[in-house]
Write a structure and sequence with these properties.
Elements lengths: L10 E8 L6 E7 L5 E6 L7 E3 L5 E3 L2 H12 L6 H16 L5 E3 H15 L1 H11 L5 H13 L25
Parallel strand pairs: 4-6
Antiparallel strand pairs: 1-2, 2-3, 4-5
């Protein structure tokens, strides 16, 4: 392992520990030349199947693309980074454990929507509107009505209802 400070190629491991989720090993290292200490993280390489796009094309699975899509949907939402990372890890495990060598992008999209639904209703609706290519307000209305029918019990305490009625004394914009 190269030292990030002096580029010396000899370091020693001072300490090794599992991360909180048990998915990585954190190694504390020390450079034998300059005594700089730094952390490295070791994780298993997941085999990911190829993705069959809606137009029939095939491409390698991209964790970056998955992460960007989820983060875009969750932008400015009150969801902890730790929870987002857990969801992404669940998705990566599910994708890498798929038995097929190729899986349709539609299946990955459904899995992403399931995770977003657990995290935040607004993020779920944002992602679903793009993923399902909503073309009018009626499509949004139907999705929101479905969420409401499934009950407020599924709402996380930190979320507001999508159609929350303003309480007295609160000004309603619009």
């Amino acid at each position: 392992m190269w030292c990030p400070l002096c580029n010396h190629d000899e370091t020693r491991v001072v300490d090794s520990r599992l991360t909180g989720d048990g998915m990585q090993i954190r190694r504390r290292r020390e450079c034998l030349k300059c005594a700089n200490r730094f952390n490295t993280f070791e994780a298993p390489e997941l085999k990911a199947p190829r993705v069959i796009k809606s137009d029939g094309g095939r491409e390698a699975f991209s964790e970056d693309k998955l992460r960007r899509g989820m983060m875009r949907a969750l932008e400015k939402r009150p969801v902890e980074t730790r929870e987002v990372e857990r969801s992404i890890r669940r998705l990566l495990r599910e994708i890498s454990s798929a038995e097929e060598a190729e899986i349709p992008s539609t299946l990955i999209g459904e899995w992403v929507m399931r995770e977003l639904r657990r995290l935040d209703q607004v993020a779920f609706v944002r992602f679903a509107s793009v993923y399902r290519r909503f073309e009018d307000l009626q499509a949004f209305r139907e999705l929101i009505e479905t969420l409401e029918r499934e009950g407020e019990a599924a709402l996380d305490a930190r979320q507001f209802s999508l159609l929350e009625k303003p309480s007295r004394g609160r000004r309603q914009d619009g």
